[in-house]
Write a structure and sequence with these properties.
single chain, 4% strand, mainly alpha, two-stranded antiparallel ribbon
Length: 136
């Protein structure tokens, strides 16, 4: 019972039994996951770049040994993924800005997510083809 100005009022109870609901996800969830993952991937490469640049202080041999790893065939797909991660992360960041600062941004979240994915793919696919051409 909850008190009101005119007396007490009975609280309505839902007659249906409690059912645990699972979060269904959607564009926002997947965009968040990909944004976080791409950001961490780019951050990892940034740390790797800082490490290899710092190794020049320990001698040319140490620096060259790390740089030679970058030239290996198995490392090239990681650089292609890095380009894709940078493209997606930057475009999704613009999508987040639109959702936050545009008064109708949240209402158009699905369309903005679709546009982000399509533009990311349109930029990434040609980049990947150009980058992998020497190895295929």
């Amino acid at each position: 019972m909850t008190p009101t100005a005119g007396g007490t009022r009975e609280r309505r109870r839902d007659t249906k039994p409690y059912r645990r609901r699972r979060y269904q996800g959607g564009e926002g969830m997947w965009s968040w996951i990909l944004h976080r993952g791409s950001g961490l991937f780019v951050l990892g490469f940034l740390f790797l770049h800082i490490l290899d640049t710092a190794l020049i202080g320990f001698g040319k041999h140490h620096y060259d040994s790390i740089i030679n790893i970058y030239k290996k065939v198995w490392f090239q797909p990681l650089e292609v993924i890095l380009v894709g991660a940078v493209i997606y992360h930057s475009l999704n960041g613009l999508r987040v800005i639109l959702i936050d600062f545009w008064d109708r941004g949240a209402a158009h979240e699905r369309q903005l997510a679709l546009a982000t994915n399509l533009v990311s793919a349109a930029l990434f696919i040609p980049s990947a083809i150009i980058m992998l051409k020497p190895y295929v």
